[in-house]
Write a structure and sequence with these properties.
681 residues, alpha/beta, Rossmann fold, 3 domains, six-stranded parallel sheet, five-stranded parallel sheet, 20 strands, 12% strand, elongated
Length: 681
């Protein structure tokens, strides 16, 4: 039965608009135009269609909403306040202020009810694709006759900027292929971007593009007034089970303002006289601010109460389900609790020096084959490099629409195609759904294509895992275009991200242990193409601290610190140095982020006072001054050729490392040295 609309609905829409007006004026900053234009879409959606429980924002089968044009965040903040998510009027008054729950763009870690961190355009709608894939997977895995546990929708509003960003094209193409009938996206067609009329840069028929992606397309021509048309479009979208839907809603940016329909209302607060004009137009007192009529609160509270009741019924159904389907029920119970299967880490492989040299990308494959069957939360994939990344485990089933013939929605392996950025943004959505640990493979160099999504993983505090193979000049013949030099420095400089570069099998297992166990920190696992020897003295326990002493020597003349494939070379270099009478220590530092979290006493035991430290890594030397007095690296691009020849060209041989270590000892001789970790603050 289609919803009916009364005067209170218009009052609610205008209340949302004016809260955006008042908050941006008080902050003297922000974007009132989009919330004023999109308020009808948001009200119809939240009040008439969505199921959610503000008292438990993490209710697993809730409908999700993503505001992809995150600059219009006063729209979602107003909604969260009206529906009782814990945002007070004071929080709205503190919009864009230091330490508030209402930052300048939505941040999932800061504000209850925000599903994903949006801001950079195109990311949010791409996250929504991930949320929708997660729901399809949950339904495929858990739903049984009489137990439709997962039937939620994912809704998103995106603007012209999101439409233009390439990441949204990558993700929405996947959504069409995946036939995600649970995904409904509103395209706010207001013809305005920061530069002015979008006709200056965007003249394509967006709906035809989405039709080509395999989406259902609908156009609501009067998004300012026609609530019934918006509702009818949502109903039509929900009725389409085998396609995602894009609803183009033509709106007026800054509706009601003297500047409506212009870029003047896009990114600037309304002038006070204009705000008074808008309030009078909507029947509000122009001398009052942050006004919410009680009947609007009551209208929203009724919807929130229905959502709370729906969760109660859902919990009863889950309880009954758990008694009938014990294994699946136990899996679901762990996911709801945010826990991993007990003892899963016992499946991680360990190695000794008697084991053969193996490329860490192959060591990674061994780990995945060991743990994916015992950790069903893991959902993996690759950006069209499955055979190079070794990301598909032996028992994997592809996560595909059943009609494709390639798999089904219960599967856990995703074929992302050549879409690194889309993959990264989708993984953020998968992780945000809850109970899923996503991993995705590509070459390390091409994680840079997804840098925007990786940064948001860290900011959003979601434990996404990148399986980043071909980690260095060691990939050889593909040459400088594929050989990462600056990539690790870039991501090591990003807060809240583990960047692992394991040196052997035990360190690879340790990287997975930390990545899979992580609750709030994403990981990049930089893995080699070439074989690496199993090292004496390595262990999962030691490597899980991020750095440790692989070879200790009393009265050392030098410490060499290294990562990945260069640790084995450095170990051979210590033998050359010792043959010349130099006492040498060797430290393996697979992850800076994890090491930096260790107690200072431990870190100083790894990097003590008294002698120089030389870092060795076939990457840029940028950043290594944090741990070393001298740095041996590559500050140019790489070269094309067989990898041993490329290593030799740049001096990365045991002899070359030993030569630089000897020069380091000589240069610092007679100087009283402090550990490079000792800082003033």
């Amino acid at each position: 039965m289609s919803p009916s609309f009364e005067k209170v609905d218009t009052l609610a829409v205008d209340t949302i608009r004016l809260l955006a007006v008042d908050a941006t004026i008080k902050a003297n900053s922000g974007h009132p135009g989009a919330p004023m234009g999109c308020a009808p879409i948001a009200h119809v959606l939240f009040n008439k269609f969505m199921t959610f429980n503000p008292k438990n924002p993490d209710f697993l089968n809730r409908d999700r909403f993503v505001l992809s044009n995150g600059h219009g965040c006063m729209l979602i903040y107003a909604l969260l306040h009206l529906y009782g998510y814990g945002l007070t009027l004071d929080d709205l008054k503190n919009f864009r202020q230091l330490g508030s729950k209402t930052p300048g763009h939505p941040e999932a870690a800061d504000t209850p009810g925000i599903e994903v961190t949006t801001g950079p355009l195109g990311q949010g709608v791409s996250n929504a694709v991930g949320l929708a894939i997660a729901q399809a997977h949950y339904a495929g895995r858990f739903n049984k006759p009489g137990y439709e546990l997962f039937n939620n929708y994912t809704y998103s509003i995106m603007g012209d900027g999101c439409v233009m960003e390439g990441v949204s094209s990558e993700a929405c193409s996947i959504a069409g292929h995946m036939k995600l009938g649970n995904l409904i996206v509103f395209y706010d067609d207001n013809h305005i971007s920061i530069d002015g009329d979008t006709a200056q840069a965007l003249t394509e028929d967006v709906l035809k593009r989405y039709e080509a992606y395999g989406w259902q397309t609908i156009h609501v021509k009067d998004g300012d007034h026609d609530y019934s048309a918006i509702a009818a479009a949502i109903e039509e979208a929900q009725a389409c089970k085998d396609k995602p839907t894009i609803i183009k809603v033509t709106t007026t940016i800054g509706f009601g303002s003297k500047l409506q329909g212009t870029h003047g209302v896009h990114g600037n607060p309304l002038k006070k006289d204009d705000a008074a004009h808008v309030k009078e137009l909507f029947g509000f007192d122009p001398n009052e601010s942050f006004v919410v009529p009680q009947e609007v609160y009551d209208l929203c509270a009724a919807t929130a109460s229905k959502g709370a009741a729906a969760e109660i019924e859902w919990n009863k159904l889950v309880e009954k389900y758990e008694s009938e389907f014990s294994d699946l029920g136990a899996d679901l119970k762990l996911r709801i609790a945010g826990k991993l299967p007990e003892g899963w880490e016992k499946s991680l492989p360990t190695y000794t020096t008697s084991d053969p040299a193996i490329a860490s990308r192959k060591l990674s494959e061994t780990v995945l084959n060991k743990i994916c069957d015992v950790v069903p939360q893991l959902v993996g994939g690759s950006a069209d490099l499955t055979g190079s990344n070794y990301t598909r485990w032996k028992t994997a089933v592809d996560l595909q629409p059943p009609s494709s013939g390639f798999g089904d929605y219960s599967g856990r392996y995703i074929r992302y195609g050549v879409r690194e950025h889309g993959m990264g943004a989708i993984m953020n959505g998968l992780a945000a759904y809850g109970g899923i640990i996503p991993f995705g493979g590509t070459f390390l160099n091409f994680v840079s294509y997804a840098a925007g999504a990786v940064r948001l993983s860290a900011l959003s505090e979601v434990p996404v895992i990148w399986v980043a193979t071909h980690d260095s000049i060691g990939l050889g013949e593909d040459g400088p275009t594929h050989q990462p030099i600056e990539t690790l420095a870039h991501f090591r400089a990003t807060p809240n991200i583990m960047v692992w570069r394991p040196a052997d099998g035990n360190e690879t297992s340790a990287a997975y242990y930390c990545a899979v166990s992580s609750k709030h920190t994403p990981s990049i696992l930089a893995l080699s193409r070439q074989n690496l020897p199993q090292l004496e003295g390595s262990s999962i326990e030691k490597a899980s601290k991020g750095g440790y002493v692989l070879k200790e020597t009393e009265g050392a003349d030098i410490t060499i610190v290294s990562t990945g494939s260069e640790v084995g070379l450095s170990l051979d270099a210590t033998k050359i140095l010792e043959s010349k009478g130099y006492k040498t220590r060797l430290v393996s530092l697979p992850d800076w982020c994890t090491f930096d979290k260790q107690p200072l006493e431990y870190k100083l035991s790894v990097f003590p006072d008294g002698h120089p430290v030389l870092s060795v890594e076939v990457m840029t030397t940028v950043g290594w001054g944090k741990y070393s007095h001298e740095q041996f690296g590559i500050d140019t691009f790489g070269a094309s050729g067989p990898y041993l020849q490329v290593y030799a060209k740049f001096g990365f041989t045991p002899e070359g490392i030993a030569e630089r270590a000897e020069k380091t000892i000589t240069s610092w001789k007679g100087v009283t040295l402090r550990s490079p970790l000792r800082k003033a603050f």
